[in-house]
Specification:
With 137 residues, this protein is of the alpha+beta class. It has three helices and five strands; from the N terminus they run αβββαββα. Bound molecules: guanosine-5'-monophosphate and zinc ion (ZN).
Length: 137
């Protein structure tokens, strides 16, 4: 498969590796948004949250938790953004699931996720909640 992150996991393409276990691989983003920008990926290819197994997703999140603590200890950022994008509409560029750890400092010039909350219709919110609850398996 022609997947850049699969090639990184198999060492066909070099990367600056920070962590590896039997399910998960973590490496430095090649275009870091800030110092310490990391990517955490499952070793088994899965494009998005909809394809990854629950076990692999939990393993990725567990490593994310561990690495966030290491980033805090090493770089002492004032905050950390976790980002995990699914699908082109969500701005996912590489279709192999990954979690970004982006250390943040106030005044670092990166955008804050500050979309404006707008008042909504409570009946509509309840209706959508019902649709999601019905879809739960
Ligand atoms: P997303 O798919 O969530 O929008 O972001 C993909 C991320 O992968 C980007 O932050 C980009 O810099 C990073 N990236 C793309 N290609 C490579 C690569 O070959 N090596 C590494 N280390 N990072 C990459
Ligand atoms: Zn892949």
């Amino acid at each position: 498969m022609d997947c850049i992150f699969c090639k990184i996991v198999s060492n066909e393409i070099p990367s600056i590796k920070v962590y590896e276990d039997d399910r998960v691989f973590a490496f430095m983003d090649i275009n870091p948004l800030n110092d310490g920008h990391l990517l955490i990926v499952p070793k088994a290819h899965a494009a998005t949250i909809h394809e990854i197994t629950e076990a692999d997703f939990l393993a990725v999140m567990s490593v994310t938790h561990k690495l966030a603590a290491a980033v805090k200890k090493a770089l002492n950022p004032e905050g950390i953004n976790l980002m995990q994008l699914n699908g082109r509409a969500a701005n996912q560029v590489v279709p192999h699931l990954h979690v970004h750890i982006v250390p943040r400092w106030s005044g670092d010039g990166l955008p804050i996720c500050n979309w404006e909350p707008a008042a909504s219709d409570m009946e509509k919110i309840k209706d959508v909640a019902g649709q999601i609850q019905e879809a739960l398996e």
